[in-house]
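Question: I have long wanted to understand how a fold can be written as tokens. Here is the record:
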Amino acid sequence: MLDILLSYKWWILGVCETVAWIATYYMLHAKIVLKSNFRFRLFTVIAGITGYGPHFGLGIYDYITTKKVDLFSIVIAVLLIIGFIFWRQIETAIENLVNKLHRNKTKKVKRSSNIKIEKKNKLNKG
């Protein structure tokens, strides 16, 4: 069973990293747009579990079985270091993206509702 994990370690790492980034986006979406504390905490846990759990687990198990530092261990170390050092900057960038996307959507809704009101006013006058 554990040999299967090591044979697909790159795929597992890629999928978990992708899920962690998607969960990070939705975590900030829940915080900013939905203003839902429960969803924010849920996606924080998902991002944490998929972002750090497999990295530590696969990295340690790979090192124990191979007894050497290979490319996989270096990639995991780099990902963890980037995550720990640059998390605040990355979080700020994603938060700004969520704010920007949310503002654009609300502007579109306001414009379309204003157009509908103007059309009704023209029909009532004419």
Observations:
- Helices lie at 2-7, 9-34, 37-66, 71-125.
- The CA atoms of residues 48 and 73 lie 19 Å apart.
